[in-house]
Amino acid sequence: MKPRLFIAGHRGMVGSALLRHAIGLGEWDPLIADRSTLDLLDSTATLRFLETHRPEAVIIAAAKVGGIHANNSLPADFLYDNLLIASNLIHGSFQTGVKRLLFLGSSCIYPKFAPQPIREDSLLSGPLEPTNEAYALAKIAGLKLCAAYRRQHGCLFHSAMPTNLYGPGDNYHAEHSHVIPGMLRRFHEAKEQGLPEVAIWGTGTPRREFLHVEDLADACFHLLEMPEPPDWVNVGWGDDLSILELAELVAETVGFTGLITTDPSKPDGTPRKLLDTSLLKARGWQPRIRLADGLRGAYADFLSSLADKTLRT
Ligand code: GDP
């Protein structure tokens, strides 16, 4: 019998990529639960679900997520929901004898002014970026909870910290999305409406690294099979670009030929967020999908979801 793997958050961009990957690999028996069946904010319901289905492994891809604006304006929701999701699933997994658990976080757990590229040991060495502090604190708590259960009880609970992700199934909300889906949508609409210019948020000077969600899914399964995984490990592309350079690439992908301007009244967020990925590389994993190729696929996914009215916003 194949081992049962619970993918928490399978409707999201990361969870759905994990599910596709698990099905493709054919080595796991994937277990999923819709929000109507299981409310991950409810500890009793989460424990009951784990007791009933007894997964051998769990990946926590469920989270309340959003871009710079959502994080900045809904700090209570981001902190409370993400703390509960992490603690309900991690503690419930321990109680029900889950053998292996992979918790997904984000590169925003690292201090705002961490030396770049950011190594795993920068964690908790300085203040966080204020625009996403609430989300980051919940993810740090989840990571530490996994490490604590591993140390105290010997269970293989560990974490992966991906850089900014993009790909099929992204959220294209006009204000609450991350930069790539936000820009794909705005440049597309500008092209459709024949607008002469698009203003990107902030100064365009912050630098960001982007990883395709299929690469992240591949890394997660690589980590799940590692006999002695690190407590937490960075998952990134290894190189970054400025937001203005990204805007030019998105405009080219979409076919928008007008002017790109900046809107410094919107926040820039952290100046740079590039992960040092040497630890995972040394453990035999590397990403494959280049940004220009990944963006073409993401735009095709945007267009098809728009056409069949399944666009997540
Ligand atoms: P962050 O990586 O946590 O800062 O989150 P985002 O992905 O939301 O934003 C990354 C950077 O892109 C920030 O400097 C934003 O100001 C900038 N940006 C430019 N245009 C957009 C946009 O349309 N949407 C978003 N979310 N960010 C944008």
Question: Please, could you describe this protein's structure?
Answer:
The chain has 313 residues and is α/β, with parallel strands linked by helices. The protein has a single domain, classed as Rossmann fold. Helix content is 42%, strand content 16%. The protein has helices spanning 13-25, 43-53, 68-73, 75-95, 133-153, 179-193, 213-224, 243-254, 278-282, 291-307, and strands at residues 4-8, 29-31, 57-60, 100-104, 156-162, 164-166, 197-201, 207-208, 210-212, 232-235, 241-242, 259-263, 272-273. The strands form 4 sheets. The protein has a 6-stranded parallel beta sheet with strand order 2-1-3-4-5-10, with helices on both faces. It has a 3-stranded mixed beta sheet with strand order 11-8-13. The longest helix is centred in the first third of the chain and has 21 residues, at 75-95. The chain is globular and about 60 Å long. It starts with a strand and ends in a 6-residue tail after the last helix. The chain binds guanosine-5'-diphosphate (GDP). Residues 67-68, 108, 132, 164, 177-179, 182-183, 186, 200-202, 206, 208, 243, 266-269 line the site of guanosine-5'-diphosphate.
Secondary structure layout plus pairing:
Blueprint: E1 4-8, H1 13-25, E2 29-31, H2 43-53, E3 57-60, H3 68-73, H4 75-95, E4 100-104, H5 133-153, E5 156-162, E6 164-166, H6 179-193, E7 197-201, E8 207-208, E9 210-212, H7 213-224, E10 232-235, E11 241-242, H8 243-254, E12 259-263, E13 272-273, H9 278-282, H10 291-307
Parallel strand pairs: 1-2, 1-3, 3-4, 4-5, 5-10, 6-9, 7-12, 8-13
Antiparallel strand pairs: 8-11
Helix pairs in contact: 1-7, 2-4, 4-5, 6-8, 6-10, 8-10
Bound molecules: guanosine-5'-diphosphate.
Guanosine-5'-diphosphate binds at residues 67-68, 108, 132, 164, 177-179, 182-183, 186, 200-202, 206, 208, 243, 266-269.
